[in-house]
Design goal:
Number of strands: 12
Strand content: 15-25%
Shape: rod-shaped
CATH class of the largest domain: Alpha Beta
Order of helices and strands: HHHEEHEHHEHEEEHEHEHEEEH
Number of helices: 11
Structural class: alpha/beta
C-alpha cells in the first residue's frame, strides 16, 4: 500500500519530536503553529494512526510516533545530507567533472585552463579523458564525459558544436634538420620524404587523407604512431619529420613548424556536447575558459 505523504510533512513531524514543542518547531520551519499542525494531521491521516498527543503546553509522542521517529530520523538526516552534497556539486564546491579532450589541446592548452579554473573551483575534481578526436566524440555521444574538445568533420545533428579554432597542419622537425629553413612546402613535395604520421584512428589523419585524395595527391606517410606524445618524442630525436596541427607545437620545445600548402589543410577544433545535455554551472565556466584559451 502506498502512503501519500511528502517530505515536508515528515520534516515537520521530526522537528516537533526533536524540539518537543509545536511553537519551537513552527519557528524553525518558518510556519505558523496552525500550518504546522495541519502538516502533522495530514501525515497522521495518511498513516492511519495518531503520532502525537497535544495539550496546550505539552506534546507527547504516542508509541506509534516514537517508533516512527526512531526509524525516520536517521533516514531523513541522510536525505538532507544527500541533497546538500548535490547542491554543493551543482555550485562546483565538490564532485567530479569528466571532460574529453584531443591530446594536442590537452598538451598545449588545458594545463593553463585548469590552473585558472582551479582558482574559482578549488574543490571540484576534473577527470580529463585525453584521447584521439574520434574517441573523444564517442565519449560525448555515450555520455562518458560532460563535453569534449575535439576535431569535427561532418556535422552531427545529435551534437551541439562550437568551433573555437582553425588549426592548420604543419611539417615539424628539429631546428638543425635539413628542411628546417624552408619557408613552406607543398604536400606534393612532401611525398619525396619519409614522413612520420598518426595512425588512422586519429581524426587528424582521416581529415588529411580525405583532402589529399580530393586533390589527387598521394599520402606521404611512412612510419606511423598512435599518440601525439610518441610523435613528439620521435621528432625531438632529430631524424624524423612529421605532420602535426600547429597547436601541438606551442608547448613543444626544440621543434620548428614549416607551413604546408597546396592545399592548405586545417582542422576545426570544437567544443562539443550532446544536444540533450545541459551544462552545470561549473561545466559552463570550464567550457567558456577553454573557448577563450583555444581562441588565443
Amino acid at each position: 500500500m502506498r502512503i501519500n505523504s511528502d517530505v515536508a510533512e515528515l520534516k515537520a513531524f521530526c522537528e516537533v519530536m526533536a524540539s518537543g514543542s509545536f511553537t519551537k518547531a513552527a519557528d524553525v520551519l518558518a510556519l505558523s503553529p496552525s500550518a504546522l499542525s495541519r502538516r502533522i494531521g495530514r501525515l497522521e491521516e495518511a498513516l492511519g494512526g495518531r503520532l502525537l498527543e497535544r495539550t496546550t503546553r505539552v506534546v507527547t509522542p504516542t508509541p506509534l510516533g516514537r517508533n516512527l521517529y526512531a526509524r525516520l530520523a536517521p533516514g531523513l538526516a541522510g536525505l538532507s545530507a544527500c541533497l546538500e552534497e548535490t547542491a554543493r556539486e551543482a555550485r562546483g564546491e565538490g564532485g567530479c567533472l569528466a571532460v574529453g579532450c584531443v591530446t594536442t589541446f590537452a598538451y598545449a592548452g588545458f594545463p593553463r585552463v585548469l590552473a585558472r579554473f582551479r582558482e574559482a573551483f578549488p574543490d571540484l575534481r576534473v577527470d580529463l579523458r585525453d584521447d584521439t578526436g574520434v574517441r573523444v566524440l564517442d565519449a560525448v555521444r555515450l555520455r562518458e564525459v560532460t563535453f569534449g574538445v575535439t576535431v569535427m568533420g561532418e556535422d552531427d545533428p545529435a551534437l551541439h558544436a562550437v568551433c573555437v579554432r582553425d588549426d592548420p597542419y604543419v611539417l615539424a622537425c628539429t631546428p638543425d634538420h635539413p628542411l628546417a629553413d624552408l619557408p613552406q612546402m607543398t604536400w606534393a613535395e612532401l611525398r619525396a620524404h619519409r614522413v612520420l604520421g598518426l595512425r588512422r584512428t586519429s581524426a587528424n589523419r582521416l581529415q588529411i587523407d580525405a583532402v589529399l585524395a580530393q586533390h589527387g595527391i598521394g599520402v606521404p606517410w611512412h612510419d606511423e604512431v598512435e599518440h601525439l606524445s610518441s610523435m613528439i618524442g620521435f621528432l625531438q630525436q632529430g631524424s624524423w619529420i612529421g605532420v602535426l596541427p600547429s597547436l601541438a607545437l606551442q608547448a613543444s620545445r626544440n621543434l620548428v613548424a614549416i607551413p604546408l600548402e597546396a592545399p592548405r589543410i586545417a582542422r576545426r577544433l570544437c567544443l562539443v556536447r550532446r544536444n540533450d545535455t545541459a551544462l552545470s554551472f561549473p561545466a559552463a565556466r570550464l567550457w567558456e575558459a577553454i573557448a577563450r584559451e583555444a581562441a588565443g
